[in-house]
Amino acid sequence: MRAHDRGLFDDLERRLIAYATEDRSLPGIDTAAARESFIGQLIDSIRRVQYVYAIQVRDIAESCSDPASNHFDPLKAAIAAKRRGDTDEAFWLVFLAIHFGKALRSGWRLARDIYGRMGDGATWSWDRTSTSPDEFRLWLATNYSALRGDGIARNFGNHRKYETLKPDSRRSTANVVTSYVHWVGPSRSHQNLLASARNAVGDDPRKMFDFLYRSMDAVMSFGRTARFDYLTMLGKLELAPIFPGSTYMEGATGPVRGARLLFSGSITTNIDRTSLDHWLVVLDAKLPLGPFGMQILEDAVCNWQKSPTNFVRFRG
Fold it and tell me: Are residues 129 and 215 part of one domain?
């Protein structure tokens, strides 16, 4: 463990033991090895959230917004777009980052080459794509062979490994993008989308998050994980005044196994997802995790159940 994490580790351990004593037992981390592994995952998840906050106060090199550059990073490009007042482009870049994901092997290359139109000097900006999603569909079909057959590795990220660029697939990227454009609405304004959520449920960040999460049923191939990742990233980048009030266990796999292991000592215990989610909400209130505590817990229990007694740092 890094020396600067020792104080955080000790604080989390003290609070977890207090929770197990005063609220609900945590048999999954009864042993020192399991507790150390779980707290290690909590700290790793905390650091990932803090990283997003950290890059927002740093200088962003122009190359990070340039899809012709090896340094292209859609999240940093979103920050740059936000700084210059182009919030719609910032939302769009976050969407592309979540849809394509960052692959362990090829990084952001897939998002980079599609956003950058395979280096033709233009971009599939929000303005261009949302104005003419059919043009984007035609371009993707025309360039599909090159994207998949020119010898350059372009992979979807681990959370998006079942996605496809195939033009004739029901869940093709073209269909996903078209459905996203329709979800944002005829005005093509993400601010109007947020206003609709606010008008429907008020300005409580959790209620707005939930409204948007439910409304994303309309976005093709954006299931539980993609919605959760997209909306939490909007919140962390301060593009939308939202954060989750739940771990959204419905439809989850790894997080459910992890939560069952934490609260019962077994991944196969038949504890319903509603109860697991409620218990994690209560646990979140006892830990120093901040507004994105539900994301931190969801991420941590998912990674922890893969190696419950030996901390392994997971990426991708």
Answer: yes
